[in-house]
Amino acid sequence: MKLGTSCQVCAKPLSEGEMRFEKKWKGKAYFACCPICFSLLQKDPERYIDRWLSSGLETWARK
To answer: Which of 21, 24, 45, 63 is surrounded by the most beta carbons within 10 Å?
Structure first.
């Protein structure tokens, strides 16, 4: 497992210890950096996760 990823909403780099806000979607875990980003991710996961995946910022997503 790699030790980092980024917020799936604002693209802020996250260490493994900063991944407190987790959204399960389509069998994988995605992360937000703060309550505001998490709220956005909860409301419209497809919008933010698809944008994040297509941006090339994905380093890993936990199953």
So the answer is: 21
| Higher-scoring residue by pLDDT: 63, 28 | 28
- Confidence band (pLDDT; 50, 70, 90) for 60? very low
Tokens of 31: 């992360």
Separation of alpha carbons 10 and 36, rounded Å:
10
The answer to whether the beta carbons of residues 56 and 10 sit under 8 Å apart is no
Residue 2, phi then psi, degrees to nearest 5: -80, 155
- What's the token pair of residue 17? 């210890």
Percent of the chain with pLDDT over 70: 81
C-alpha 56/C-alpha 47 separation (Å) is: 15
Query: What pTM was estimated for this model as a whole?
Result: 0.76
